[in-house]
Amino acid sequence: MDLVSVEGAGKTYRLGEVEIAALWDINLSVKEGAFACLVGPSGSGKTTLLNLIGCLDQPSSGRVLVTGQDTSRLGRREAAIFRGQNLGFVFQGFNLLPVLTVYENVEYPLLMVKRLPKVQRSEAVARVLEAVGISDQRDKYPDQLSGGQRQRVAVARALVGSPALVLADEPTANLDHATAGMVIALMRQMRDQLGTTFIFSTHDPRIVEQAETLFTLSDGRLVDTKAGLAGGQEVGHA
Fold first, then answer.
1. 86 contacts 78 by C-beta, under 8 angstroms
2. CA-CA distances (angstroms) from residue 125 to 111, 113, 157?
3. Domains and CATH numbers, the chain
4. What is the pLDDT along the chain (238 residues), one digit of tens a residue?
């Protein structure tokens, strides 16, 4: 079953009196449980497309469906609620709150969006911290952690609400080679264990090697769709 379906989506931005087209007529689908990558040079539209799928922006044309919901029709408040209930995000800059501990950073979306009772929050946070192998760091603050540990916290925070889809924008860009490899393996493990769908925007060949589907963008257009090295045979072209 398709978890994400992008149908004829375009995105145009206005800069003064000039319109700039960031995406043109994008058509793609991602199945449940996929480990998929958006690839292409800088400026190709990867992050713009990831933002459309993540309900952080809306298409200027076409539509985007996530879990069967046409997110293009959601207002700002409805989109925020939908994100909180269905999506997780991992960013290259970690985006952890410096005044909160590891435990509190991971708990934060459960407090702000899902509003779960304390006992359920505690169980969910403990479970995901254990899953990403960082339970022993729960009382530390972000500035007391290494880059790899911070990204593990970010992955835990993305997963704590049991989202159907996790979107990761260049999640290894600020990590050294060894640490990046561990984080990629961790996310693949989480997909295999939990069935969570992952979509990456990346230049990192190590993530590309783990992807089952590659969507290649160039100048705002989807120019190729094929199976990655982990996914077997080619599945089609745009």
1. no
2. 11, 15, 8
3. 33-59+73-227 (3.40.50.300)
4. 799 999 999 999 988 888 889 999 999 999 999 999 999 999 999 999 999 999 999 999 999 999 999 998 899 999 999 998 999 999 888 889 999 999 999 999 898 877 788 999 999 999 999 988 899 999 999 999 998 899 899 999 998 988 999 999 988 888 888 888 888 888 888 888 888 999 999 988 888 988 999 999 999 999 999 887 676 544 444 4
